[in-house]
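Explain this fold:

***
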Amino acid sequence: MLMCRELAGIASDYIDGELSAGRNLSVKMHLMMCRHCRSFIGNLRASTELMRAHSSARVDPAVIDRISDRVSEALRDR
């Protein structure tokens, strides 16, 4: 069973459609049972769409990694 912490680590890959079929299924099953992670994924999707819609510049991958690390830390500290 996928844990919330694990989902946070692969959330961007899930949204971008970059997970294997098995891993994608694990995420979907977890989301059916966990309202907190559904909310997290929804917020991450909305943030990603806003950034894409309002930014003509490419974001440095290091910045994305730092944001992802901070989100993961926040979920761990819950």
Summary: The CA atoms of residues 24 and 39 lie 17 Å apart.
